[in-house]
Amino acid sequence: MIETAALAGFFAAHGVWSVSEGETLIPLVGYEQPDGERGMDRYLKDDVGRSAQAAQEALEGNDHGATRAVLVADAYLAMDWGRTDALIVRAVEHGLTPGTMELAVPYAPPTDNSPFTVYRLQIIEVTGFADQDYDTLAEAFFAGVDSHEQAAEVWHATTVFAAGAVAALWRSDRERGEAWSLVGFAGVLLQNGAFAAVTALRLAAADDPTGALWSLHDALFTLNGVFLASALVGLSLSGRHAGLIPAWHARLGYSSAVLLGTSATLTPLVLARPGVLGLLGLVGWLLWVAWLVVYSAVLVRCAPGAGRATGE
Q1: Does the pLDDT value for residue 309 go beyond 50?
Q2: 287 within domain boundaries
Q3: Residue 262 shares a structural domain with residue 184
Q4: Do residues 17 and 3 lie in contact, with contact meaning Cβ atoms separated by under 8 Å?
């Protein structure tokens, strides 16, 4: 189940990347061979329905003799607030112990007034797997997302963001005899290193029959919250002291840091009983994303010597 969920995350990330510019996704089937090699086929017919049907038939037929395969297609999903666009992800584990899982990634396409937005992953159905721990499944799915090349570029962009923040804040820090921006920059570098290790462990764990590498992967993934908390606190304090960001934005960063730091501190409990405790890290990570997007916009719009934000 772990490997199949990770493969689903990888190709779901590819699908999200494709629709992020407002285009309709051509249905695709990604697969992994017994030797670990991956491939992908797209299915373009006269209409979207026939394209999705052809992809579904290919998924079931397993023409490539794959160990596992994933279908990703553009569709609609009924949510509490109404119907929304969504990527439907169907994953199949072939072989002696077959299993299937169906997930959905709801999203809002970009418009003139709003950016592209991805909503919370929806686990629709899981069958045929002895272990149906949804927290573990979701964690493996997002590990697969992180292994996608374009996702890796996003992490590199995070480093560039941190460097830009230090460039904007360092003079103010020096005048006050502080170095909070450097604390934040160090946190970003450490979390990038942690995620590189998480991705490497995910790949190595596929050949580890003991499961020890997955335990190390899960622990490092959760402990990464310490590094993100350092980045949030350092850059929020420095940005607030310099008048670069408003108070509400700094409070958003502090809130995210508390949740991520608490989740990391409780790592043994989170791993033993993920449930509600697992939500600490998830909510903290979502707040981190919101904080990062707003901070990035501030840096882009704030030219050297421009006025600083002081609003509450």
Answers
A1: no
A2: yes
A3: yes
A4: no
Q: Which phi and psi angles does 298 have, rounded to 5°?
A: -60, -45
By DSSP bridging, strand 38-42 and strand 68-79 are unpaired
- Domain holding 13, by residue range, is 2-133
Q: In 3D, which of 163, 84, 90, 85 has the Cα closest to residue 125?
A: 90
305 Rama sector, left if φ>0, alpha if ψ -120 to 50, beta otherwise: left
Retrieve residue 178's tokens. Answer: 């502080």
Residue 142 lies in a domain: no
The answer to the question of residue 93 being in a domain is yes
Residue 202: per-residue pLDDT: 58
**Backbone phi and psi for residue 81, each to the nearest 5 degrees, phi listed first:** -90, 0
Secondary structure E strands in 10-150: 28-32, 38-42, 68-79, 82-93, 99-108, 117-118, 122-127
Tell me if 248 is assigned to some domain: yes
Considering the entire predicted model, what is its pTM? 0.52
Residue 68 near residue 32, CB atoms below 8 Å: yes
The Cα–Cα gap between 171 and 113 comes to 35
**What per-residue confidence (pLDDT) applies to 251?**
93
**Is 160 strand, coil or helix?**
helix
The CA distance from 96 to 284, in Å, is 39
> Residue 80 in contact with residue 46, Cβ under 8 Å?
no
